[in-house]
């Protein structure tokens, strides 16, 4: 399968464009197992991701996954990984931000670029404790909201948790299982204006709930 | 049959219960009540993992759980007699299964199906309950990973045997075991003891 006419059909072109546009933002780039990996600095990461998403020539419109990796490596302790895909060009690109676990584990959110990053960033925060600055609703997503033991996928986290089993059981039984979803989360009212016209009419007629 | 007595009320004896001692009438009544209870167990399926697949196979036509009076799965805890926890229980689901158990009316029983529900199984980790008997009382444990349908059927037959041996004269059978004021169902030292690593997980280190 090849890309549509007029668009570059491999990730190398996008990497070259990023290197030209952000000379100080790229740490290194390489290809591993047919996967192009672009290592960028935390400071310019958001600008590079926005460039990759918005430029018509690159058009990485789909965020496949967003996650974290913690290494046992003094030089490269922490990485936030963005797996991007251009649906039009059929090209994948992996962007990595290296972080120092001694410093603040904080990167800028990409929910303004890909709405789908919202739950992925919540998961990365829940499991690794990386703060995504600007994320509107950075809560736990896998563990319950009152979970008090920290971020389970960190290397410093003991396999069986910090507390005794009795204390874990006590805290779990005290959790309110109905407190996990807010009404805003369950409502589609915010997305109403972005829906297609016929769907808007159908929702407006049905008389369910209030529309903005 | 209304024989719900708060624990420890034996000292200041209630005359209605004191007069009930096993005799010909009560044992015949026991037989009738136990026969009907044992053969019409409506189960609440609490399937969380691969054990639930075996549970579905048990309910399907080849193994046919309805031969034991369980053809109606009760998806409402209010109409269930038997809670079958099929699969591992994460701590996040602990308050959920506890609430379902509290919503079930007496008489009620429970089966812990599979290694994970009974002991935590291979999941000796931060997120997993090490045996649902730290959350709710359990009548029958089914070993296996997952147990074959025959295993679950055998557990049901064992439970029916247990039910047939119950007596209306024994008020302790129908006592609700609630979560105590300390927020726990069992004493903390008991929970720590049954949650101790065993088997292969002994060799896992606690830190990393």
Brief summary of the model shown:
The complex is a heterodimer of chains A (about 210) and B (about 210). Chain A is α/β, with parallel strands linked by helices.
Record the SSE blueprint.
The complex is a heterodimer of chains A (212) and B (208).
Chain A lengths: L10 H11 L4 E7 L2 E6 L4 H10 L7 E9 L7 E9 L4 E9 L6 E3 L8 H12 L2 E3 L31 H10 L8 H4 L10 H10 L6
Parallel strand pairs in A: 2-5, 6-7
Antiparallel strand pairs in A: 1-2, 3-4, 4-5
Chain B lengths: L14 H4 L5 H15 L4 E5 L2 H10 L22 E5 L7 H10 L5 E5 L1 H5 L20 E3 L6 H16 L23 H7 L14
Parallel strand pairs in B: 1-2, 2-3, 3-4
Helix pairs in contact in B: 2-6, 3-6
Explain the overall architecture.
The complex is a heterodimer of chains A (212) and B (208). Chain A has 212 residues and is α/β, with parallel strands linked by helices. Chain A has a domain at 1-142: NADH:ubiquinone oxidoreductase Nqo5 subunit (Beta Polymerase, domain 2, 2-Layer Sandwich), CATH 3.30.460.80. Chain A has helices spanning 11-21, 45-54, 117-128, 165-174, 183-186, 197-206, and strands at residues 26-32, 35-40, 62-70, 78-86, 91-99, 106-108, 131-133. In chain A, a hairpin with a 4-residue loop joins strand 4 (78-86) and strand 5. The radius of gyration of chain A is 21 Å and the shape is flat. The N and C termini of chain A lie far apart (44 Å). By secondary structure, chain B is an alpha/beta fold. Chain B has a four-stranded parallel sheet with strand order 1-2-3-4. Chain B has helices spanning 15-18, 24-38, 50-59, 94-103, 115-119, 149-164, 188-194; strands at 43-47, 82-86, 109-113, 140-142. Chain B has one domain: 3-Layer(aba) Sandwich (Rossmann fold), CATH 3.40.50. Chain B is globular and about 55 Å long. In chain B, strand 2, helix 4 (94-103) and strand 3 form a beta-alpha-beta unit. The interface between A and B is medium-sized, with 25 and 32 residues.
């Amino acid at each position: 399968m090849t890309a549509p006419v007029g668009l570059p059909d491999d990730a190398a072109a996008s990497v070259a464009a990023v290197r030209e546009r952000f000379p100080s933002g790229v740490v290194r780039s390489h290809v591993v197992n047919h996967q192009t990996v672009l290592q960028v600095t935390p400071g310019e990461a958001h600008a590079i991701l926005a460039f990759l998403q918005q430029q018509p020539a690159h058009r990485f419109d789909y965020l496949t996954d967003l996650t974290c990796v913690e290494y046992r490596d003094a030089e490269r302790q922490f990485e936030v990984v963005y797996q991007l895909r251009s649906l039009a060009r059929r090209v994948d690109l992996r962007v990595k931000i290296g972080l120092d676990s001694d410093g603040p584990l904080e990167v800028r959110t990409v929910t303004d670029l890909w709405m789908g990053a919202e739950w992925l960033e919540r998961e990365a925060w829940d499991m690794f404790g990386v703060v995504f600055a600007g994320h509107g609703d950075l809560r736990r997503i896998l563990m319950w909201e009152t979970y008090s033991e920290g971020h389970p996928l960190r290397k410093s986290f003991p396999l069986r948790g910090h507390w005794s089993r009795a204390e874990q059981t006590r805290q779990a039984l005290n959790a309110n299982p109905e407190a996990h979803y807010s009404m805003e989360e369950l409502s589609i009212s915010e997305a109403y204006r972005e829906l297609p016209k016929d769907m808007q009419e159908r929702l407006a007629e049905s008389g369910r709930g209030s529309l903005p | 049959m209304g024989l719900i007595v708060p624990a420890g009320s034996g000292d200041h004896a209630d005359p209605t219960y004191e007069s009930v001692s096993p005799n010909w009438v009560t044992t015949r009544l026991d037989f009738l009540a136990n026969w009907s209870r044992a053969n019409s167990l409506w189960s609440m399926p609490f399937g969380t993992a691969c054990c639930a697949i075996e549970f579905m196979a048990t309910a399907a036509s080849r193994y046919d759980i309805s031969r034991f009076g369980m053809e109606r799965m009760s998806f409402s805890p209010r109409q269930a007699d038997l809670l079958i926890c099929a699969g591992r229980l994460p701590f996040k689901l602990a308050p959920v299964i506890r609430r379902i158990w509290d919503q079930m009316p007496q008489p009620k029983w429970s089966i812990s199906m599979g290694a994970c529900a009974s002991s935590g199984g291979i999941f000796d980790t931060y997120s997993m309950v090490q045996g649902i008997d730290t959350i709710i009382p359990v009548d029958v444990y089914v070993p296996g990973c997952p147990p074959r349908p025959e295993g679950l059927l055998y557990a049901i037959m064992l439970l029916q045997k247990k039910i047939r041996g119950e007596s209306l004269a024994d008020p302790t059978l129908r006592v609700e075991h609630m979560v105590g004021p300390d927020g726990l169902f069992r004493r903390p030292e008991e929970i720590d003891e049954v949650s101790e690593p065993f088997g292969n997980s002994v060799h896992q280190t606690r830190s990393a």
